[in-house]
Known about the structure:
The structure holds 2 protein chains of 2 kinds.
Chain A: H1 2-23, H2 31-39, E1 50-56, H3 67-82, E2 86-92, H4 95-109, E3 115-118, H5 121-129, H6 141-147, E4 155-156, E5 159-160, E6 163-169, E7 171-174, H7 176-181, H8 191-203, E8 207-209, H9 217-230, H10 233-242, H11 248-262, H12 282-287, E9 291-296, H13 300-305, H14 312-320, E10 323-326, E11 340-349, H15 356-364, H16 367-377, H17 393-404, E12 408-410, H18 412-433, H19 438-450
Parallel strand pairs in A: 1-2, 1-3, 8-9, 11-12
Antiparallel strand pairs in A: 3-11, 4-5, 6-11, 7-9, 7-10
Chain B: H1 2-21, H2 33-69, E1 72-73, E2 84-85, H3 89-96, H4 101-144, H5 151-163, H6 166-176, H7 182-189, H8 205-231, H9 235-243, H10 248-259, H11 261-277, H12 280-284, H13 297-307, H14 311-350
Helix pairs in contact in B: 1-2, 2-14, 3-4, 3-14, 4-8, 4-11, 4-13, 5-8, 8-11, 9-10, 11-14, 13-14
Amino acid sequence: MTRSRIATATLAFASAALLLTACSSDGDSPDTSSAPEGSSTAQGGGDEPVTLTWWHNGVAGDTGENSLGDYWDKVAADFTAEHPNVTIEIEQIQNEDLQRTRIPTALQSGDAPDIFQQWGGGELADQAQAGYLMDLSEPLAEDISRLGGAVAPWQADGTTYGVPFQFAVEGIWYRPSLFEEAGIDGEPTTMDELNDAVQKLKDADITPIAVGAADKWPAAHWWYNFALRSCSPDTMSSATSALDFSDPCWLDAGQQLEDFLGTEPFQDQYTSTVAQTGATSSAGLVANAEAAMELMGQWNYFVYEGFTDGTDEGIAALHEDLDWFPMPATSSGEGDPSASMGGGDGFSCYVDAPAECAQFLSYLVSDDVQRGFVEAVGGLPVAPAATDAITDPVLQEIAQTSSDAAYVQLWLDTLLGQNVGGALNDGVTAQFAGTGDPQNTVDLMTAAAATQ
Amino acid sequence: MTALETSGTGTVPAAAASAAAGDAPHTPVTPNPRKAKLRMWAELTLFLGPALVLFLTFVVYPVISAARYSLYQWNGVEQFSDATFIGFENYARALFGGTDPATKSAFMTAYTEPFQAAFSHTIAILVLSLLIQLPLGLLIALVLNRRFPGRASVRVIMFAPYVLSEVIAGIMWLIIFDPNGVATRLVQAVGLNPPAGGWLEDQTWGFWTVFFIITWKYIGLAVILFLAGLSGVPQELQDAASIDGASWWQTQWRINIPLIAPTIRIWVFLSLIGSIQLFDMVWVLNQGGTTGQYSTIATYMMQIGFFRSDWGFGSAIAVIMFLLSFAVASFYMLVVLRRDNADRPKKVKQA
């Protein structure tokens, strides 16, 4: 819309300029040469000036620090220094606003940013189907093979519509000092050991596990992990693409959750607890050592740091007493015990974006930029060559678990898309609240699938 | 953007026309019917035009769009032109599980029951507001209408919650009703147990906690309206009543309350519409509850439309909500408020 308006304006300006030069007697006007320069913005490529708009979720946190946003500013500045014809206009938007409101509205209006945050999975598939996304398979072919399997969630029907810059598996964060207090030796590797640890913590009057069920998805992640153990990789991929949840393994996941809920491992009033905001959130409970464990992604490392006083000593003290282990294996089920749930962040190019967009994404996931991402932000990179830049032992362990996993399954709500994924989260939350059951969770997903 | 542009261009000819019509303002109005008519139209365009354009763009057009979307199966991601027309299926899904027998029972639990829950919460809030807030607001207003030291500050305090933004008030109550918050500590201090699932998330207590917060928030409006009405009641009537030996209660019951009845009826109208559209406060308190235990029609619409990307269905809920408030408002206007509008000329005549 804007671009065509600019083109029209340039055209009008050019014809006016031509008219003027035609009228004037000495016609060595520089005006005519400036006209085509402006009008070719839509073409891309070459050295013509190009503006890329970029929407990402790197916003300042409570402390006012914004390491991710600052790093993206630097990446954009470095890229434009090498490509002087490219200008990058960045807009930092809070994650949920960006995902739920800004991007869908922008895509609908036909005036979307050239580069925008992309979470992959069902949402990407819907956007690709509606024809909003640029096919990156060709321009990024080398990068895609270099990054490996982690790109899969950003592909639909064999075509790549985005690239991840971060990908990590989730696991259980815990406070070793509380484990010690309760007399637990070593990290639980099976559900039986986890149940045993829960009992020991309860005996020692310590809240075993914190969960932010008020936000729904943190509760649902327990179900995802049980499903990962119950369902075979084939069922997992065929059922989630066909949206057919008739396999008994989905019910079994809910039943395992019911059994686990029966041991009362979570804090009191967990349906009133949010995940990240405030000292009484699940992250706050773990950060303040009021609960021993929490199932979460790698980002929670930084969420926990937010609950310290922000000084280096405070953060070091937290790191001393914070560790991580992968989700334990279950005794039954067809899933691989080493499979992990995971997810990441990436970017897509709008279908009408200039060709420089793909160039920029290629630069963004290059080994050097990925290494810088690790050093500046403490993120977990996708590029295998950048993993050696990780120095933090816990993040190293998470990266190791990712690469050791038989396969990494994308978060089920992301994979299934907003509608069916949202129904799943609602169903699991109802199980947590005591109003649902395994069958209800599967029914809600089936019903949502039937509406689309 | 487009609205502003249109309203801008809309006013330009209007202003020009009015300038043309009012060419000679100092001349006395001539009995020229054509000129007078032109002037009237020019004034109408000038004064009503911009408002009408805004109203059409931001009220009428969205209502019509929502009605159109509600007939489609649309995920909000694809262009609307690619959406599938399904007639009244979205309404059927919300009201009785849809027309397809294969999915009827699944849709009943997944869509009809949550919608019915949201609908019944809305109606419950509507009825309870009248049953609880009306007597309470009236009582407070009558008490505050008496003269006593510190009356002005008490009035301000009563009205303060209404002035607070919904989001700030909501977050304040979230902190108070936190599992480790003040409310829990207070209740524990007197030896009682807080609701098992948490103040807001408990299946039975959640709704009542929210209703308490709503009453706290909106009672100020009732009080201030009733006080304004009471200040219009002539002092002589009360003096006369006290000379006749009427008690305080009799004065209120026989004189003050009947005389502020029009104000009360207006408040009831505002309360009815406010209850049907209740959204912001409930949304801030965790979006109607993790299992929808205090959801309203508006929060359910937001949840299913925006967050579940079921735009056609969400639009159907929006239309149902619109029809409900339209029906209630029309009925109330025609049946109840009509008396107030008809009363006035009579009184003038009597005077």
